[in-house]
Amino acid sequence: MTQSTLVCLESSANHTTYDPHQLMNLCPKTGKPLLACYDLARAARTLTREALATRPPTLWRYEEVLPVRDDRAIIDLGEGWTPLIQTARLGERIGCLRTYVKDEGLNPTGSFKARGLSVAVSRAYELGATSIAIPSAGNAAGAMSAYAAAVGLPAYVFMPADVPLAFRAECEALGAHVTLVDGLINDCGARVREGAAEHGWFDVSTLKEPYRIEGKKTMGYELAEQLNWTLPDVIIYPTGGGTGLVGMWKAFDEMEQMGLIDSKRPRMVTVQSDGCAPIVKAFHEGQEHAELWPNAKTVADGLRVPVAIGDFLILRALRESGGTAVAVSDEVMMEYTNLLGAMTGIFAAPEGGACLAAQVQLLNDGWIAPDESVVLFNTGTGAKYAHLWAR
Ligand SMILES: *Cc1c(COP(=O)(O)O)cnc(C)c1O
Fold first, then answer.
1. Where are the domains of the chain?
2. For a substitution probing ligand 1, which of 279, 379, 384 has the most ligand atoms within 8 Å of its CB?
């Protein structure tokens, strides 16, 4: 048995609680995401700074605040515990010396989607799922396929027909059943819902099941641990469905309740492409929910999310943190992806370049001061986006 202290699932809309030891998607009453709750007083007894120093270098080092109870259900391909790189040359170049990059491209399957899907697929497997399905325009499908393959769960992937080859190839090589859909990610989502009803597939769409966010929140734990139990002044996060941003915000509260950090929080910044910026628009209009972004278009596949089911959770975290939201063009994003590469040695996904573009914009605006500490998330490897350098 692990030391998981999971006690219930709670509706993010009205705090109704549910027994967590059953397969669940959204809150059946409100249709909103369910969030995992832990016995943090109990977790704090074993999840100490000293204990962590001796644990394995994967996200499973935080087992007390993860949902899996049977350790035989853990599917571990080495996810998490990615390096936090202080970027001397980049920091000097842009005039912000304490600039760090959390390099999530080093995860299994080349993106931080591995975090969420390692935990979600492990938990679904533990609870008896016999097949799993996902709609995805990019990295999530490959990550799901990998964890499904490791335990032999049949995996069903629905992707827009124009998905770049690398993303589709990965799923096929990992043994998933891939269907190309003439449409966008929401059309793929509809196909998954049909299949779930008809064939009993378990739907692991982001925030439609409760544990991908638990995997992604470990980025927040790692940041604190790697910065010696402090947090940076600013975190810049390329936001699609927002799972990682909402997850880190949850992690900070858990850590404070366990006495691992104090009450100081980073200012959280969402960056999106100006071809698909529903959260940026809603943030600046003072809305609680984001409207569907029509004709969503960007080379950053992870950001091509026209409607996010957790929109209100993202907007709440941005506002509570004193953060902001920034849109950048694809052209500027690519320019900064190349600058990031040339100054750090990290071949970043365009989503990573978007963070740097936003940082430079916010430095110019005076919203970030040159002596502040800033963490950029490079959420994936550039290798899967090699087509963007075609000529
Ligand atoms: C999915 C994805 C994102 C967006 O992540 P969310 O947590 O869903 O907002 C950003 N970058 C890459 C490379 C992705 O694959």
1. 84-111+212-389
2. 379
d(CA 33, CA 159): 23
Q: Cα-Cα-Cα-Cα dihedral of 184, 189, 194, 197, to 10°?
A: 180
Per-position b or e across 335-359, b if 16+ CB within 10 A of its CB:
ebbebbbebbebbbbbbbbbbbbbb
Taking the centre of ligand 1 as the mean of its atom positions, its distance from the CA of residue 215, in whole angstroms, is 13
d(CA 136, CA 148): 15
CA 135 to centroid of ligand 1, rounded, Å: 14
Spatial distance between the Cα atoms of 145 and 92, rounded to a whole number of angstroms: 40
Which residue puts its alpha carbon closest to atom 3 of ligand 1? 302
pLDDT band at 347 (very low <50, low <70, confident <90, very high): very high
Mutate to test the pocket of ligand 1, among 82, 102, 112, 212 (most ligand atoms within 8 A of CB): 112
Crossing angle (nearest 10°) for helices 243-257 and 311-320: 50
- Percentage of residues in the chain having pLDDT higher than 70: 100
Structurally, at CATH architecture level, domain 84-111+212-389 sits in 3-Layer(aba) Sandwich (3.40)
This prediction's pTM: 0.97
Span from the CA of 302 to the centroid of ligand 1 (angstroms): 4
- Ligand 1 atom with minimal separation from the 216 CA: 7
Which of ligand 1's atoms lies nearest the C-alpha of 240? 9
User: For the segment 61-117, what is each residue's pLDDT rounded down to a tens digit?
Assistant: 999 999 999 999 999 999 999 999 999 999 999 999 999 999 999 999 999 999 999
| pLDDT, mean of residues 195-200 | 96
